[in-house]
Amino acid sequence: MKKIMIILMLLALVPVIAAQECLQLEGGEEISSDTLLCAGQYSIENTIEITADNILFDCGDAVLQGSSFISAILVKNKSGVTIRNCEITGFGNAIYLEDAEMNTISGNKITDNNNGIVLHNSPENIILQNIYLNNRRDVFEFTTEQKDNGVENEMQISIELKQKENEAAESYNNLKELFSQYIDQSQETVVINRTIIYNATDNSTTIRISINPKTTAINYSYYEKIPKCMAIYAKEIVFKDTNYEVIVDDPIIRWNFAEPLVQEEIISYKIKKLLTEDCKKLLEGFGFATEFEKESDYPFIILGILITMGTIVVVLYVRRIKK
Questions:
Q1: Alpha-carbon gap, residue 50 to 61, rounded angstroms
Q2: What does DSSP say about strands 204-213 and 265-271: parallel, antiparallel, or unpaired?
Q3: With left for phi above 0 and alpha for psi between -120 and 50, is residue 273 left, alpha or beta?
């Protein structure tokens, strides 16, 4: 009897063990049954394709990172598929549905992709409770007719722009690393504040940057990295100053101050659009000087002399009274 009970208990555990199995991704898999990914970060070089109807693809705690020239997940001519709990970043398309209906895409975090969810000839799908951040398009829907009229070419151009944006970010980080020894000192000595002002009359946003030195800054330069959600090229920006230079056309802008910076300076630029809160958070800049003038000791010397002379006068006056 005991043996029977033990066997029954072991058999009861089998479904639990099976339910806990997960898949270690390599990229390029064809998914034909319910799948749970093992937790971790996966660098994906080939598209994952869903090849069966009515299945669940659950990323759990997995993060998919990839190339800006491919789709992370493809669902083609399928229905009843659920994709959930995926964090997908860095792809040309995060999730691509083609000729697919009655599928559910929910609870995913989709960031820094060219396109988030693409619906190609794919109506009547359920898209809900996904988080989108810094994608060129969050959800992009089009038909084959639109594709033939140039949408696909537009998508390819957009993907290439995303690649350029990644290169611009790399250039910006390289600049920060190159000048790091000056930046650290400058952050303690120069106060930088950014103000963003929207004008509803002409639908424009002005970015105003205040640079306020605590002491004289020599050879001061300020760099601003402008995100793609704001402007794709520098020519889209209206500058109110003349002392700027376009370092990278994606764009990274530099302002140079030929004269020593002795008091607050204001630089500003304008773009003809309303910025989202997420886009505002992506604005980034840094400044540095190669040298700072030390504060002169001259005022303190004069003060010391005056105090000494005053003391002598008081002593002489007191002595004269006593006589």
A1: 19
A2: antiparallel
A3: beta
